[in-house]
Design brief:
This protein has 140 residues and is mostly helical. The protein is 61% helix and 0% strand. The chain is built from eight helices and no strands. The longest helix has 21 residues.
Length: 140
Amino acid sequence: MSRTTAAAPAPLPPPLPPLNPAITGIRNGLPVTTLDFLSDALGIDRTALLDILGVSERTVQRKESAASLLSPAASDRLSRIERIFNLAGEIFGDTAMAATWLKRPSRALGNEVPLRLLDTDMGTQFVERELRQIQFGFVF
Protein backbone atom coordinates (compact mmCIF):
# COMPACT_ATOMS: atom_id res chain seq x y z
CA MET A 1 0.00 0.00 0.00
CA SER A 2 1.52 3.27 -1.02
CA ARG A 3 1.35 6.21 1.23
CA THR A 4 1.12 9.70 -0.18
CA THR A 5 2.43 12.43 1.91
CA ALA A 6 0.92 15.84 1.80
CA ALA A 7 3.12 18.44 0.24
CA ALA A 8 4.49 20.99 2.61
CA PRO A 9 2.60 24.27 2.41
CA ALA A 10 4.22 26.92 0.29
CA PRO A 11 6.13 29.49 2.29
CA LEU A 12 4.45 32.79 2.86
CA PRO A 13 5.53 35.63 0.60
CA PRO A 14 7.75 38.23 2.19
CA PRO A 15 5.89 41.05 3.92
CA LEU A 16 5.00 44.03 1.78
CA PRO A 17 7.22 47.06 2.20
CA PRO A 18 5.74 49.99 4.08
CA LEU A 19 3.53 52.29 2.09
CA ASN A 20 5.24 54.72 -0.21
CA PRO A 21 6.05 57.84 1.84
CA ALA A 22 4.31 59.93 -0.81
CA ILE A 23 1.04 58.07 -0.22
CA THR A 24 1.38 58.53 3.52
CA GLY A 25 2.08 62.23 2.98
CA ILE A 26 -1.03 62.64 0.85
CA ARG A 27 -3.17 60.79 3.36
CA ASN A 28 -1.84 62.98 6.16
CA GLY A 29 -2.16 66.14 4.07
CA LEU A 30 0.46 68.09 2.13
CA PRO A 31 1.90 71.37 3.40
CA VAL A 32 0.23 74.51 2.06
CA THR A 33 3.61 75.55 0.64
CA THR A 34 3.22 72.77 -1.95
CA LEU A 35 0.33 74.76 -3.39
CA ASP A 36 2.47 77.86 -3.86
CA PHE A 37 5.35 75.86 -5.32
CA LEU A 38 3.08 74.24 -7.92
CA SER A 39 1.25 77.44 -8.86
CA ASP A 40 4.65 79.10 -9.43
CA ALA A 41 5.92 76.14 -11.47
CA LEU A 42 2.79 76.18 -13.64
CA GLY A 43 2.86 79.95 -13.96
CA ILE A 44 -0.73 80.33 -12.79
CA ASP A 45 -2.39 82.33 -10.07
CA ARG A 46 -2.83 80.48 -6.78
CA THR A 47 -6.56 81.22 -6.95
CA ALA A 48 -6.84 79.36 -10.26
CA LEU A 49 -5.13 76.33 -8.74
CA LEU A 50 -7.39 76.51 -5.68
CA ASP A 51 -10.40 76.49 -8.01
CA ILE A 52 -9.19 73.23 -9.57
CA LEU A 53 -8.61 71.80 -6.10
CA GLY A 54 -12.05 72.86 -4.93
CA VAL A 55 -10.61 74.73 -1.95
CA SER A 56 -11.37 78.32 -1.00
CA GLU A 57 -8.65 80.91 -0.50
CA ARG A 58 -9.99 81.57 2.99
CA THR A 59 -9.59 77.91 3.97
CA VAL A 60 -5.97 77.96 2.82
CA GLN A 61 -5.32 81.22 4.69
CA ARG A 62 -6.63 79.62 7.90
CA LYS A 63 -4.42 76.59 7.35
CA GLU A 64 -1.39 78.81 6.73
CA SER A 65 -1.95 80.82 9.92
CA ALA A 66 -2.36 77.62 11.94
CA ALA A 67 0.59 75.91 10.19
CA SER A 68 -1.89 73.22 9.23
CA LEU A 69 -1.91 70.79 6.30
CA LEU A 70 -4.21 70.55 3.30
CA SER A 71 -6.98 67.99 3.54
CA PRO A 72 -6.29 64.51 2.16
CA ALA A 73 -8.74 65.16 -0.72
CA ALA A 74 -7.07 68.45 -1.70
CA SER A 75 -3.65 66.85 -1.25
CA ASP A 76 -4.65 64.03 -3.58
CA ARG A 77 -5.81 66.46 -6.27
CA LEU A 78 -2.68 68.57 -5.85
CA SER A 79 -0.41 65.53 -6.17
CA ARG A 80 -2.39 64.45 -9.24
CA ILE A 81 -1.72 67.84 -10.87
CA GLU A 82 1.95 67.64 -9.93
CA ARG A 83 2.23 64.11 -11.36
CA ILE A 84 0.72 65.16 -14.69
CA PHE A 85 2.88 68.30 -14.78
CA ASN A 86 5.99 66.16 -14.23
CA LEU A 87 4.88 63.71 -16.92
CA ALA A 88 4.30 66.56 -19.38
CA GLY A 89 7.74 67.94 -18.50
CA GLU A 90 9.32 64.57 -19.29
CA ILE A 91 7.46 64.26 -22.59
CA PHE A 92 8.10 67.82 -23.78
CA GLY A 93 11.58 67.95 -22.29
CA ASP A 94 10.90 71.34 -20.74
CA THR A 95 8.74 72.42 -17.80
CA ALA A 96 7.85 75.73 -19.47
CA MET A 97 6.50 73.87 -22.51
CA ALA A 98 4.67 71.47 -20.20
CA ALA A 99 3.02 74.35 -18.34
CA THR A 100 2.04 76.01 -21.61
CA TRP A 101 0.51 72.78 -22.95
CA LEU A 102 -1.48 72.27 -19.74
CA LYS A 103 -2.93 75.80 -19.95
CA ARG A 104 -4.03 75.78 -23.60
CA PRO A 105 -7.17 74.17 -25.03
CA SER A 106 -6.47 70.81 -26.62
CA ARG A 107 -8.40 69.75 -29.71
CA ALA A 108 -7.85 66.11 -28.75
CA LEU A 109 -9.53 66.81 -25.40
CA GLY A 110 -12.61 68.45 -26.92
CA ASN A 111 -11.00 71.91 -26.75
CA GLU A 112 -10.81 71.64 -22.98
CA VAL A 113 -7.85 73.08 -21.10
CA PRO A 114 -5.96 70.02 -19.78
CA LEU A 115 -5.28 71.66 -16.41
CA ARG A 116 -9.02 72.16 -15.89
CA LEU A 117 -9.63 68.44 -16.41
CA LEU A 118 -7.33 67.48 -13.55
CA ASP A 119 -10.02 68.12 -10.94
CA THR A 120 -11.36 64.59 -11.47
CA ASP A 121 -9.77 61.19 -11.82
CA MET A 122 -11.55 60.61 -15.15
CA GLY A 123 -10.31 63.93 -16.53
CA THR A 124 -6.81 63.10 -15.37
CA GLN A 125 -6.99 59.81 -17.22
CA PHE A 126 -7.96 61.61 -20.44
CA VAL A 127 -5.08 64.07 -20.05
CA GLU A 128 -2.60 61.31 -19.28
CA ARG A 129 -3.79 59.30 -22.27
CA GLU A 130 -3.32 62.34 -24.51
CA LEU A 131 0.19 62.89 -23.15
CA ARG A 132 1.06 59.23 -23.77
CA GLN A 133 -0.23 59.52 -27.33
CA ILE A 134 2.02 62.54 -27.84
CA GLN A 135 4.91 60.65 -26.29
CA PHE A 136 4.52 57.67 -28.59
CA GLY A 137 3.51 59.58 -31.71
CA PHE A 138 -0.18 58.74 -31.83
CA VAL A 139 -1.52 62.27 -32.02
CA PHE A 140 -4.92 62.47 -33.66
